[in-house]
Amino acid sequence: MGRDIENSEVFKWFVLGFLAFVVAIVWFIPGQLMVALGLVMMILGSALWLLPILIHKPVQDEWS
What is the pLDDT of residues 4-32, one digit of tens each? Predict the structure, then answer.
């Protein structure tokens, strides 16, 4: 249970940092570069659901 709470905290801070990064890029970079970076951010954002799967460490007897 404690591990799940820790993972959700890590995920929450990752998402908040990611959103702050996106806002900073959109705020400071104009034009076509902003559009290209926006597409990259959309692709990365759609892959965020993979993060808990990648962080999750299987328990010793999970597969037995």
Answer: 666 677 788 888 888 888 777 777 767 77
pLDDT tens-place string over residues 43-56: 777 777 677 766 66
Domain that holds residue 41: 2-55
**64 is a domain residue:** no
Nearest residue to 15 (alpha-carbon basis) of 41, 53, 34, 33 = 41
Counting other chains too, the contacts that 7-14 makes at CB distance below 8 Å and 24 or more residues apart are 7/52, 7/55, 7/56, 10/55, 11/51, 11/52, 11/55, 14/51
Instruction: Give a yes or no: residue 34 inside a domain.
Output: yes
